[in-house]
Amino acid sequence: MIKSRDEIFSQEIRNSSDFAFNQSVAKVFDDMVTRSVPFYLEMQRMIGELAGDHYQENTTVYDLGCSTGATMIHMDQTIPAYIPFVGVDDSADMLDKCKVKLSEMGITRPYKLTVEDLNCTVTIENASVVVLCLTLQFIRPVNREKLLRTIYAGLVPGGVLIVIEKILAEDSSFNRDFIKYYYDFKRRNQYSEMEIAQKREALENVLIPYKLSENIALFKESGFRTTETFFKWYNFSGFIAKK
């Protein structure tokens, strides 16, 4: 599939609004995320490896905030085709794109795509792996522990939660440095100063990151007995938490 180029913020937006995963974003999301998230494809490969080692027989694998299906496509390569997948997203437009991609990739396993708002309720049943890839940061802080407790309750014993998040530095004095390096990364991927600034403004009230330690504490408070950090790049991190 040829990726459409992300030019959503390339023109001046006079009346800015909060970022939304609408049809315009769904169309260019694959290009947007690979140019906006450092080591995105490597993160996806790592999720696939971890999921492949932690799925359990006769269970289900969930991708919450599955967007256009990249994570499920990577996990499809490492998890037997008889293990069912469930992809959940609150954007029907993203799921429409996801369905097309899964079909084009020839994925034959049983899978279900459902529109659900993770801020409200989500059903997790008999899961051995649950993934939140760049998703928890978009859940309102007041709802995060409730979501994680729901995930924990739906995991079988020994099941795992795999999380990729944008994070804050433990020492706030490093945040400015990390943001500078991150914007340099975007510039290297041909985003203009206007695009960077307008997207930052659009995300300001939508994407709310926690510190690495705050995320780990949240996993513990939600019931998970152990958490390991498997990825770190300045203001991005990956976690695996086990029930």
Structure, explained:
With 243 residues, this protein is an alpha/beta fold. The chain has a single domain (23-242), classed as Vaccinia Virus protein VP39 (Rossmann fold), CATH 3.40.50.150. Helices cover 40% and strands 22% of the residues. It has 8 helices and 8 strands. The chain has helices at residues 23-36, 40-54, 70-76, 92-104, 141-154, 175-188, 193-203, 212-221, and strands spanning 60-64, 85-89, 111-115, 127-133, 155-168, 210-211, 226-233, 236-242. Strands 1, 2, 3, 4, 5, 6, 7 and 8 form an 8-stranded mixed beta sheet that branches. It starts with 22 loop residues before the first helix and ends with a strand.
CATH class: Alpha Beta
**Structural class determined from secondary elements:** alpha/beta
Q: What is the number of beta strands?
A: 8
How far apart the termini lie comes to 37 Å
Given as residue ranges, the uncertain stretches (5+ residues, pLDDT < 50) are none
Number of folding domains?
Answer: 1
Mean model confidence by pLDDT: 94
> Gyration radius, to the nearest Å?
17 Å
Q: Tell me, what's the shape?
A: globular
- Please outline the major beta sheet: 8 strands, mixed
Number of helices: 8
Return the CATH architecture.
Answer: 3-Layer(aba) Sandwich
Order of helices and strands: HHEHEHEEHEHHEHEE
CATH superfamily: Vaccinia Virus protein VP39
What helical percentage do the residues reach? 40-55%
Strand content: 15-25%
Multimeric status of the protein = single chain
CATH topology-level name: Rossmann fold
